[in-house]
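Q: Sequence in, structure out?
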Amino acid sequence: MLVHPWDAPREDAEWQRWLAVHDFGQLAVNGLPGEPPQVQPLHFAYDAERGEAVTHLARPNPLWPALEANPDVLLSVVDDYVYIPGPWQAPPGTPSEHGTPTSFYAAVQLRCRAHVVDDPVEKAELLNRQLGHFQPEGGSARAAVGEAPYGRLLSGIRGLRLEVTDVRAKFKYAGHRPDEVKDRIVAGLAGRRGPRDAAASEHLLRRREA
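A: Exactly. Output:
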């Protein structure tokens, strides 16, 4: 992923805050010899203090042999993406048709070393970390070996601890455009009211103010 200086995070806290609430991504695993990479959509819980993300997958998942052969993986998350029409980006003083269309998006790619978790007690602890992230208000039993309702299900899954070894993050929101163009884009997003237009506008304004 190409990251221009004007699209880079201002600080680690910027992408960490974003990732804390964007917890569904794609895990890319190198394929076995002669096979293409495998990509698995999944929910995960990122822990900035520990420098890792945790998740789990069903034991029959075909991804496991490739993961065990090469535990270096990439967890990719993309959201808040919108299409920006060319006229919105036209340089000041030029005809609107001279503007170049583009995509805005936020993206975080975590390069990780995957650690498979098969010990039942450790799997239960991993599941409880995920429950704590996705259901902080409670409303669900905790996982414990041999106890209902999840104890009997532990054998059907394998846990994953994804130890983060490198991060690439990008917030592509007209960072290098003059304010006149940014204002035009914000107005266009407000008028269009697409599914992610409000989030994209918030990113653009937040980063301009920073």
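The chain has a mean pLDDT of 96.
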